[in-house]
Amino acid sequence: MIKVLLADDQRLVRAGFKSILDGEPDIEVVAEAANGTEAIGQTRAHKPDVVLMDIRMPELDGLAATREVVKNSDVRVIILTTFDLDDYVYGALRGGASGFLVKDTEPMELIHAVRVVARGDALLAPAVTRRLIAEFAGRVARPATSPRLNSLTEREREVMTLVAAGLSNDEIAAKLVLSPATAKTHVSRIMTKLDVRDRAQLVVLAYESAMVTPAWMST
Q1: pLDDT, mean over the chain
Q2: pTM for the full model?
């Protein structure tokens, strides 16, 4: 059973999401919160697998709450937002969120997102998430430097670049003529070396370190 916490200051939004998720045999909404402070407390009390976190809430916003929730825990956070190109969402991805959804998402997309993130994968919709990260990472004045990047092999750098381009493990395997299992192993080793939670943080780091450059900056 996937345990979910709903954190949103709008009661109707929480009620709608709860109705959708509780209708699934493998998902249970175990708690709700109306602000970031409550989200942190309810997470500690109920230990959910996934938190659906509104980005704008009173008392403590979703950005600060996300950082606290993911700190020293395996809890996964999906950010809820009204607009996909939102610098607060980018900050939340940097802070450890595993992906985001716009609030008017289709019910099946919501259910799929919860299942994807619960099993430890990042919720990366290439058409939106890459664009969001490229937009805001492209504003960084100087590329971030991380000594950990020096620990990557040439093959691992190649794989990380393809992850940042939105390719799945199977697509990476096909492009590099590898088995899917080998591609998955490369991705796992990269995440371990760079100490990141999932693919979302890999994509952020790839753009911020200029390993991948937004298209408008290379023309």
Answers
A1: 85
A2: 0.77
